[in-house]
Predict the structure.
Amino acid sequence: MNLCKDNKMLLSDVTTQTDISLQHPTSQVSNNDEIDNSQVEDDKTSQDEKDPIQRRLHPTCKEDIKLLFSELKIWRKQKLDEIEQKRDISSEARIELRSDILSKETFLLRKISEIHHSLNSSEEKKRIDEILSQVTNPMEWEISTGEKILVQTQDMKDSSDLIQIYRLLNNLDENQNGM
């Protein structure tokens, strides 16, 4: 049995299973067989935001990760129920089928965890970039005439240079890891 091939198939099965029947927005036609464009645009935006298949294939937030974990749990329960319903197989065959399910579940848990880790690291990079940009922003001072002037201290200039070096090193590190 080729586990890698089965796990890829399983990952695609789990990520594409859904109880919701999806319809293309343009398939909704009025009595005159004309498409209401405003309704199509509204349906497209709401479908893009809430499309469960896209959320499974391209998770972007913690809720999407939770969705993947819950779908995996449902899949495991369905598979175990299928095994229990089979009355014509021996206990050794049951054990082997459960073992296969366990190995596939382990593989999928690892993949979901990798996705979760990459999402966390990208969020952390965004937070660090926001903090670093705040450090280099010039300060706004109000002078005695009531005017506001922007002041950039030598520390801010030095910080700006260090931040550029930091970003260059991060880009270099990302390029090396990507290869």
